[in-house]
């Protein structure tokens, strides 16, 4: 329900719109928003097309990835003559061009197939966003124009409809599974196994899998039966260096900005900062885009190094928040366990302490806990991405142990997790096992 409140006073008219119990918009005679919009419209022109700097933009040229483009093209080309191509798995850190190369090559492949009249279909699925086998399969079915309800069917039924359509239309289907490691860590490798064995049950249709993973150890997660059925080829994308990132930024800048608004020093600094942090092209593009937006808001006519440094500080906060939101539920529970230990003044925890609280949180939330060995692996992964800090210390004749603490501010964890439906109620939870852990530390 919306309620409009109006008050006519000496200072002009004040109005507020209440929605769901809270004020969502308030304006007075000066109308702040009108002022903001007018200042933007009359201000300096920085961006020609800011969408060019977004992650999902696929440019017509991908500098320094020519070898990978050629190799992926050679692997997938057999579908143009009616033959199934090999499964292929692509590895590399975030921002090394994996997704852009795959979309570029398979987009060109699909276009060529249409011209030749070849029965080729390509479907891209981000497994982290899809989240479940059901949603991955429903996306694959939608690419074949098979309507699948949002929920309500068994996974086996959806898979059968997918196979039946493939067979009836004699299609050569390429399924691109981006961030496949996220799905397998959370749900297991059953879907990947079924997709790699599907061709054994088809007489006419054929399916190939293109997997994309940020985890170089991805194959360690797979069952030996899945590994034996993959028969895959591999491409590993190395990080970009500073000069390569600068080439990428200059190419995008020609389309993104008006002439003369970008200083050479700003481009060089964006490239250097991103190269120092794993050669991440996404990071470099984000820095350049946000620097441009800050210059635009400040009414500057040129994007300078100071704008890049201000952008770096802003992105760092947003990047950590995004990483927290995209963690799997079990990783969130592990991080929440460390958070609760820190809240109880246990500065450096050990794996056993974290596991005790993790198990209690899982029981409280109705989630089946993982083994301590798997939780130890999740702690290592959180350490790699900087959310936890771990160090191995020697206890002399008692051996060695791992000390673990948060790598980010507790306030940020609370800010992000508090809005999470599943874990928000655990932020203020007081684990029963905390007393015993605290006693053992004193």
Q: Which class of the largest domain in CATH terms?
A: Alpha Beta
Number of domains: 4
Count all strands and give the number: 10
- Residue-averaged pLDDT: 84
Q: Label the CATH architecture of the largest domain.
A: 3-Layer(aba) Sandwich
Q: Helical stretch count?
A: 18
Radius of gyration equals 26 Å
* Sheet with most strands: 5 strands, parallel
According to CATH, the homologous superfamily of the largest domain is: P-loop containing nucleotide triphosphate hydrolases
Helix fraction?
Answer: 40-55%
Distance between the termini: 54 Å
Structural class: alpha/beta
Order of H and E elements: EEEHHEHEHHHEHHEHEHHHHHHHEEHH
User: Could you give the order of strands across the largest sheet?
Assistant: 5-6-7-4-8
Instruction: Assign the CATH topology of the largest domain.
Output: Rossmann fold
pLDDT < 50 runs, ≥5 residues: 1-27
Globular, elongated, flat, extended or rod-shaped: what is the shape?
Answer: globular
Strand content: 15-25%
Structure description:
The strands form three sheets. A five-stranded parallel β-sheet has the order 5-6-7-4-8, with helices on both faces. Strands 1-2-3 form a three-stranded antiparallel β-sheet, with no helix packed on it. Strands 9-10 form a two-stranded antiparallel ribbon. The protein starts with a strand and ends with a helix. The chain is built from 18 helices and ten strands. Helices cover 50% and strands 15% of the residues. The chain is α/β, with parallel strands linked by helices and 442 residues long. The protein has four domains: 2-42, no CATH class; 50-56 and 240-324, Helicase, Ruva Protein, domain 3; 66-236, Rossmann fold, CATH 3.40.50; 327-441, Arc Repressor Mutant, subunit A (Orthogonal Bundle), CATH 1.10.10. The radius of gyration is 26 Å and the shape is globular.
